[in-house]
Automatic annotation (TrEMBL), chain A:
<keyword id="KW-1133">Transmembrane helix</keyword>
<keyword id="KW-1003">Cell membrane</keyword>
<feature type="domain" description="ABC transmembrane type-1">
    <location>
        <begin position="119"/>
        <end position="310"/>
    </location>
</feature>
<keyword id="KW-0472">Membrane</keyword>
<dbReference type="Pfam" id="PF12911">
    <property type="entry name" value="OppC_N"/>
</dbReference>
<keyword id="KW-0812">Transmembrane</keyword>
<dbReference type="InterPro" id="IPR025966">
    <property type="entry name" value="OppC_N"/>
</dbReference>
<dbReference type="GO" id="GO:0005886">
    <property type="term" value="C:plasma membrane"/>
</dbReference>
<feature type="transmembrane region" description="Helical">
    <location>
        <begin position="158"/>
        <end position="178"/>
    </location>
</feature>
Automatic annotation (TrEMBL), chain B:
<dbReference type="GO" id="GO:0005524">
    <property type="term" value="F:ATP binding"/>
</dbReference>
<keyword id="KW-0547">Nucleotide-binding</keyword>
<keyword id="KW-1003">Cell membrane</keyword>
<dbReference type="GO" id="GO:0015833">
    <property type="term" value="P:peptide transport"/>
</dbReference>
<dbReference type="InterPro" id="IPR050388">
    <property type="entry name" value="ABC_Ni/Peptide_Import"/>
</dbReference>
<protein>
    <submittedName>
        <fullName>Peptide/nickel transport system ATP-binding protein</fullName>
    </submittedName>
</protein>
<dbReference type="InterPro" id="IPR003593">
    <property type="entry name" value="AAA+_ATPase"/>
</dbReference>
<dbReference type="InterPro" id="IPR027417">
    <property type="entry name" value="P-loop_NTPase"/>
</dbReference>
<keyword id="KW-0472">Membrane</keyword>
């Protein structure tokens, strides 16, 4: 089956790839297989590359700002026109070799540095919230689905309560009333407290189905403890759902963090955050639209990439489980 | 009767329902000796599987049991969960009906056999792996040393059931309960599995309780037969006795329901 000449028929190539990437149709979609499928998908690859850049930016923020020359809290009064109320010199919000993304109006802080440090805040908060909701959601979902009875009743009522609660209003209220001690930690806790029921509900339903499967009964009949049943038999079979649910929740948390910072109850001012930058750009949108466009674009692309990627992962896992 | 391995006396299982408690198993008594096979027959819902689950303490929550279940003189009924756990899969093993859904699709079969073994016997991973390979060889899985790392879906239905049997036998139980082990398999594979069970039994001297609705299977494997109907034990005796001279109306009905090749067909 050698194909002579240039490989023009792309459709055929896709089919070949599909067969090659199917090792006997194993029910658990392996991590390698998920990554392999994603690497062949241009949109997913693009998202992955963008996210990688953002993550690298966040991780190496101090190094990058050393390279670009300006830190996130350094004021460059030379880059703004104080006669005009602080509008940046030059067109496009003062974009130049000196300030790659321009400067903040009024005080002249470097936008590139603030974007880089803002990525740090957004990603740290979103990932911590995801990990925390992931743990809470999986543990409570498993408990409710496996033990049923009053355990399920108690957990389910708490979940109903949290999901019916006007979470945003409560978050704003609680964050503005609490002392601004460690805001990022507080944000993570508050976001997670309201976020876990969405994952737990899915996990609970699937656990109920899995707990009735014969292999769980068989393991019980061969003397396995409840803990072993939950963690060794049921949990691994939930892997696909957990991966999909958590990847799809990261963009939501980034959005929530930005939203809360925008409303002024998120990260406290000297620390850079995308939501906060957008918030302060609102009053400058007519004279300096770039101040709004740059953090807005980063926020938009990050959320979009994560959503698209989550969707792609879901379709790979769904396809894997269907075979 | 001290040489009897497994004795069940007046076992009654009561399940709570929306219309009050229902006796799904009523006063069932039987004994199984070493290297002995008891067949439990009956139609669906006659309480065959409930009897097996009650013996292992695996009944749904809310179920009540009375009577006596003794293995080697040790009472099992009313034992604590921890006590029962040390019995399950160790002294008494069970093989279920559907071999595909009885195996966890996430793990290799080797790992699943090893796990059951290590839960009761402990020991190193390496030793358990060796046990798993030997157990698979014993149930005649070809190329066991390599296939031990395969996933359940990579085996055929008959092989999966062999693996379930290997798993059940890896702790050398004194009693094996097979709950409709051949129902999901086609007839030729069914015959192979029955042959395998009989052969393993003569090797190990394990007592066997074979639950089925298939009278042909029972007549080929069981020494003694218990016929159940709606939770009642209607007939209990040796296989020849029950099949050649059924005392009870229900047993006769069951036997008459078996199609015979020399029957006259009414058109």
């Amino acid at each position: 089956m050698t194909v002579a000449g240039p490989r023009t028929p792309t459709l055929l190539e896709v089919e070949e790839v599909g067969l090659a990437g199917d090792p006997g149709g194993g029910p658990p979609t392996s991590t390698g297989r998920i990554l392999g499928k994603l690497a062949r998908d241009k949109a997913a690859l693009l998202c992955l590359v963008f996210l990688l850049i953002v993550v690298l930016m966040a991780v190496f923020a101090p190094l990058i700002t050393k390279l670009s020359g300006w830190g996130p809290d350094e004021f460059d009064s030379g880059a703004i026109n104080s006669d005009l109320g602080g509008v940046p010199h030059g067109s496009l919000g003062g974009i130049s070799g000196e300030h790659w993304f321009g400067v903040e109006p009024q005080n002249g802080r470097d936008l590139f540095a603030r974007i880089v440090y803002g990525a740090r805040v957004s990603i740290t908060i979103a990932l911590s919230a995801t990990v925390l909701t992931g743990i809470l959601g999986v543990v409570f979902g498993l408990l409710a689905g496996f033990y049923r009875g009053w355990v399920d009743q108690a957990i389910s009522r708490v979940m109903d309560f949290l999901m019916a609660f006007p979470a945003l209003i409560f978050m704003i209220a609680i964050l503005s009333s609490l002392p601004a001690g460690n805001r990022p930690v507080l944000l993570v806790v508050v976001i997670s407290a309201f976020g876990w029921p969405y994952l737990a509900r899915v996990i609970r339903g699937q656990t109920m189905t899995l707990a009735n499967r014969e292999f769980v009964e068989a393991a019980r009949a061969s003397g396995a403890k409840n803990v072993a049943l939950v963690f060794r038999e049921i949990l691994p079979n939930l892997r696909g759902s957990i991966i999909v649910m958590t990847t799809l929740s990261v963009p939501g948390y980034i959005g929530t963090e930005a939203g809360l910072s925008f409303l002024g109850v998120g990260v406290t001012p000297p620390t850079a955050s995308w939501g906060q930058m957008i918030s302060s750009s609102v009053s400058w949108y007519s004279v300096d639209p770039m101040f709004f466009a740059i953090p807005g674009t980063f926020l938009f692309l990050t959320v979009l990439s994560l959503t698209v990627l989550g969707d792609k992962i879901r379709s790979v896992i769904d396809a894997g489980e269907a075979t | 009767m001290t040489d009897e391995l497994f004795v069940v006396e007046d076992l009654t299982v009561t399940l709570p329902t929306s219309r009050g408690p229902v006796d799904v198993v009523k006063d069932v008594s039987f004994t199984v000796g070493r290297d002995d096979t008891l067949g439990i027959v009956g139609e669906s819902g006659s309480g065959k599987s409930m009897t097996a689950l009650a013996v292992l303490g695996l009944l749904p929550p809310g179920a009540r049991t009375s009577g006596s279940v003794r293995l080697d003189g040790r009472e099992l009924l009313g034992q604590s969960e921890g006590e029962l756990r040390s019995v399950r899969g160790n002294a008494i093993s069970m093989v279920f009906q559907d071999p595909l859904s009885s195996l966890n699709p996430y793990y290799t079969v080797g790992l699943q056999i090893e796990e059951g073994y290590r839960a009761h016997r402990g020991g190193s991973k390496r030793a358990a792996r060796q046990v798993a390979i030997e157990a698979m060889e014993r149930v005649r899985i070809p190329d066991a040393a390599r296939r031990v790392d395969d996933y359940p879906h990579q085996f055929s239905g008959g092989q999966r059931q062999r693996i379930m049997i290997a798993m059940a036998l890896c702790c050398s139980p004194s009693l094996l309960i097979a709950d409709e082990p051949t129902t999901a398999l086609d007839v030729t594979v069914q015959a192979q599995i029955l042959e395998l069970l009989a052969e393993l039994q003569t090797q190990t001297g394990t007592g066997l309780i074979f639950i089925t609705h298939d009278l042909a299977v029972i007549s080929s494997i069981a020494r003694r037969v218990l016929v159940m109907c709606a939770g009642d034990p209607v007939e209990y005796g040796t296989a020849e006795q029950v099949f050649s001279d059924p005392r009870h109306e229900y047993t006769r009905t069951l036997l008459d329901a078996v199609p015979r090749i020399d029957d006259e067909v009414m058109l």
